[in-house]
Amino acid sequence: MDAGLIAFWVGLIAATLRVATPLLYATLGALYSERSGVLNLGIEGIMFLGAFVGFAAAAQAESAGWAAALWVGLLAAIVAGALMGLLMALLTVHLGLNQHVSGLGVTLLCTGLALFGFRWVFGERAVLPRIAPFAPLDPLPGAPMLGPILNQHWLTYLAFLVVAPAAAWVLYRTRFGLRLRAVGENPEAADAAGISVFRMRTIAVTVGSALMAVGGAFLSLAQLGAFTPGIVAGRGWVCIALVIFARWDPLRAVLGALLFGGVFALQLRLQAQGVQLPYELLLALPYLVTIAALAIAGRNAPYPGAYLKPYRRE
Which of 56, 67, 110, 168 could form a disulfide with 49, with the two C-beta atoms 3.0–4.6 Å apart? Predict the structure, then answer.
């Protein structure tokens, strides 16, 4: 095979893993929530808030001379995501408000908080503030093909090798997962069996939101080392589609994240190669593929039985 073509494919695979990482975190977070019967449309805003809080906390810790500044940022993002999850659970699980409206409200709240917080912390600047991001791991330095592919951030390894398999194990092999799925399928029967529907749904939404925030923090703490207003760029909405594409299965979610990540990385490389296609079409390509995949995989999708349905004891 031509050396240039090999380099193209190696670069594409490596970029696919990087692009897919935040999608996978957020999709798994949404999957936990939806398995319990709660649609969390706050995902875009929670990712955005996670990106900002992680960056701001890391920048402040770095300026204070803390050696573990990036870890402080990651922890702060997780806490911020969990708090937004608790808010979403309060609105939808405990107060029984409309999940669509609540989710959109959470997204608007998170977006406003992040933009206000950025201006409050950093002020008006001609040049965006930056931090030194997490350095990628390089397990096979110098290896001709695997080396560049495996040169990824540890959060990428964590997502694909730990978080996604753990989600599958938790949902299908543990008592907690059985109860979570029972709550999402038939909350009345689960309640009659002694399972607290409110507690299970609150845990699912909170844990899921924390994962969404990690997805956002990956962008600012690992991929960019900066925060910009367009940093999430609609990834949260894509993740909602990926959950349906995955049919609420964590391992299928990995495939969905890789599919979108691969198409996104491909369109960037096609633009760099000077392919004679309108760049607007190339930019839209990942979203067009997502819609097509959703239209195909979403047909007859086995939605959780209590999806979008608030639960009230009679």
Answer: 110
